[in-house]
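A brief tutorial aside. Many learners find it easier to grasp structure tokens once they have seen a single protein encoded end to end. The record that follows does exactly this for Tumor necrosis factor receptor superfamily member 6. Read the sequence first, then the structure, and try to relate runs of similar tokens to stretches of the chain.
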Amino acid sequence: MARANKCPPWAFVFVVLCLLLPLACYSASSQTQGSVGGRSPKGLLRKKRNLCVDGTYEYNGRECCLCGAGLKLKNHCVLNKDDGNCTQCDANTYNSHPNFKQSCEPCTSCDHPNANLQIDEPCTTARNTKCKCKEDHYCINAGLDSSESCILCIPCTVCGAAGIKVACTATNNTVCHEEKNKIATAVGIVIGVFLLILSIVGLIVYLKIKRKQHSFTTPETLPLKDLQPHLVEIVEVVGWKDMKTIALSTKIPRTAIEFCERDNPRDTQQQTLQLLETWIESQGRNASQNLIESLQKNRKNSKAEKVIRILSGDSAA
């Protein structure tokens, strides 16, 4: 009975092997993971170090990382694309996009005289100043979106007794109700009929006169002339009202006309001179012929004849 209860030696060996085998597998696995894990952070750091968040640019045949918004380039990269040096933009300057410029743009000022502007968003190193209109003014640069800054504002229209139909906004002028008056409407109809009859009579008289005399000089018969030496004389002949009509008919922007008025308040001669110079630039070498033709189209034949005499060298004009 004592021999039957004795444990065989091979059973003891089997139990020891069963206990040691999982430990050996775990140790091998840990070493493998440790070696992989040991290389991985270095690889990740290397990749991260060479990663250019804002993109790259080429310099002397190699790629360098761009400086981010709000920064400017101090030194180009030498060995690696990310070992260049960027520095913060100075006060009152900015760069709004990734770049490799060695300077920053100056911030826009909202203090221009007669522009009626105030600061909406102040300038930062990564964003230019954004201007908006002062109270009771609206911006005249059409097509604005919320990211653009206004350049010029003008006062909103003040409605009289008719009242406001649509209030003035940052980009649109006030719309007033139309005044409706039955007596005024009746008077307007009578005046309209009278003017119609008068126009018909005037047209008949005009056609008769035109048949008798059609001898004034046409622009095509006048050689191309330089208007610059005669600007002052032409301004005195044409005048602000007709110069403004000519500019509008030849698609000079209304904002350019308004700038002439604001630059020279209460001085119509200077307003006319500035607008004439702007108009001459838009017309090029045919400016002299186009000016005479525009005056004639607007039935300003006497002024057209005076301009012709000025350009022909007749001092009696």
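Self-check: The first strand starts at residue 56 and ends at 59. If you spotted this yourself, you are ready for the next section.
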